[in-house]
Write a structure and sequence with these properties.
By secondary structure, this protein is mainly β. It has one domain (about 1-120). Helices cover about 0% and strands about 50% of the residues. The protein contains no helices and 11 strands. It has strands at about 1-10, 10-20, 20-30, 35-40, 45-50, 60, 70, 85-90, 100-105, 105-110, 120. The strands form 3 sheets. Strands 4-5-6-7 form a 4-stranded antiparallel β-sheet, with no helix packed on it. Strands 8-9-10-11 form a 4-stranded antiparallel β-sheet, with no helix packed on it. A hairpin with a 7-residue loop joins strand 6 and strand 7 (about 70). The radius of gyration is 15 Å and the shape is globular. The mean pLDDT is about 95.
């Protein structure tokens, strides 16, 4: 069985299937833009990046995309700096629980707990 996570302007769709076809098995964030979604291959956890012109970008975490999502903490830039516009990607690091999220304006966030809390990575 293959799983595909599809982020759209109208939410996140999870499709499951095989060569015979795919079907939508869940939908989350109805009516909200989802810029990126990934399943961590180590933990199975799903991380989704949503973008709102009013609330700004957010990262969300769940072990089951059919269930409840938890908003991640720490996804923000310090006061007085440029506003966080969008989160473009999330990738797994080499260590268990290590994730990186990249966004605009040229920022990198790091999580060491599988996506629940994030800190701004400042080596740039």
């Amino acid at each position: 069985m293959t799983e595909i996570l599809v982020g759209t302007k109208k939410g996140l769709f999870v499709l499951e299937g095989d060569a015979g076809g795919f079907e939508v098995t869940s939908r989350s964030f109805a009516g909200e833009p989802v810029d990126y979604a990934m399943r961590d291959p180590r933990s199975g956890r799903v991380i989704a990046a949503t973008g709102s012109e009013f609330y700004g970008p957010k990262l969300w975490v769940t072990d089951d995309p059919r269930g409840e999502w938890e908003q991640a903490k720490g996804v923000e830039l310090p006061e007085g700096e440029a506003a966080l516009v969008r989160l473009w990607t999330v990738v797994a690091g080499e260590e268990d629980g290590l994730l990186f999220a990249g966004g605009d304006p040229g920022v990198l966030f790091e999580s060491r707990d599988g996506g629940f809390t994030w800190s701004l990575h400042r080596p740039f």
